[in-house]
Design brief:
heterodimer, A: 139 residues, mainly alpha, 5 helices, 73% helix, elongated, B: 123 residues, 3 helices, disordered N terminus
Chain lengths: 139, 123
């Protein structure tokens, strides 16, 4: 831990009133920079949560596509379902990575990192839609 | 402690950021609970054993835990904003990490379900 002085001061101020552990998870984020404007951290947190809900929707859509027993080409239907679920598994991993990189950048006053999660989800949903279209045409 | 308004009835942050963040957590917990309920119907049928409903039950418990911990987190943040102001110390991100893990596990469960359902449909 090599937290600079301003963050240590912020910590001791709060330690008097609220119980907060001295080291925070993940350390790779909180050992960097100083305490930022909490409103930026909260916005970063909400972005993470929005991606988690997106992941849940992708998985639900993928499972529904296969389980509802729709009269489609079975191979293409399965492929469309697996594309949605695959990206649904990947999204929370990327969401966590983006949260951590963004929080680090906010703490260091650095430019925010770019993320490929949006393009990835867009490509996956498009591919899955095309597969469903083909599955309708070739049933 | 600081010149941030913390008198009764005055929001520590006029943008209501802790409230908005707690509502985002609640939406997420509700989505989790909804999927768990659906899976309690779905998984026993797909795998041919009532025991698989326990996976959905575990999901419901996870949703309740997320709801509760998010509420505690929101209270901590609100108190921090009132006491110290916007440069105060935010709680750590273990809850976020845990939620990402639970979401991945749900995805893997979904993938297994799809494999089992498609395999049984072929027979």
């Amino acid at each position: 831990m090599s937290a600079p002085k301003p963050s240590e001061r912020g910590h001791s101020l709060l330690a008097s009133g609220t119980a907060v552990s001295t080291t925070r998870f993940p350390r790779s984020v909180y050992s960097h920079g100083t305490e930022p404007d909490a409103r930026f951290s909260l916005a970063n947190e909400r972005t993470f949560l929005a991606w988690v809900r997106t992941a849940l929707a992708l998985v639900a859509g993928g499972v529904a596509l296969e389980v509802l027993g729709l009269d489609l080409h079975t191979g293409l239907r399965l492929a469309a379902s697996l594309v949605l679920i695959g990206v649904g598994i990947l999204t929370p991993v990327l969401a966590w990575r983006n949260w951590a990189r963004t929080e680090r950048a906010i703490r260091g006053g650095e430019p925010l990192p770019t993320s490929m999660t949006g393009p990835l989800v867009a490509v996956a949903v498009s591919a899955s839609s095309l597969l469903v279209l083909l599955a309708i045409l070739l049933r | 402690m600081s010149n941030t308004p913390s008198a009764m009835g005055t929001a520590p942050d006029p943008g209501l950021q802790p409230e908005r963040t707690e509502l985002a957590w609640r939406r997420t917990a509700l989505a989790l609970a909804l999927l768990s309920l659906v899976s309690m119907r779905l998984l026993p049928e797909a795998f041919g054993s009532e025991w698989w409903a326990l996976v959905g039950a575990a999901g419901l418990v996870a949703a309740a835990v997320v709801w509760g911990l998010a509420h505690r987190r929101a209270r901590t943040v609100t108190a921090m904003l009132a006491d110290v102001g916007v440069r105060g110390r935010m709680p750590g991100a273990a809850l976020l990490f845990g939620l990402a893990g639970v979401t991945c596990a749900i995805g893997v469960t979904g993938a297994i379900t799809v494999f089992v359902v498609s395999a049984s449909a072929l027979q």
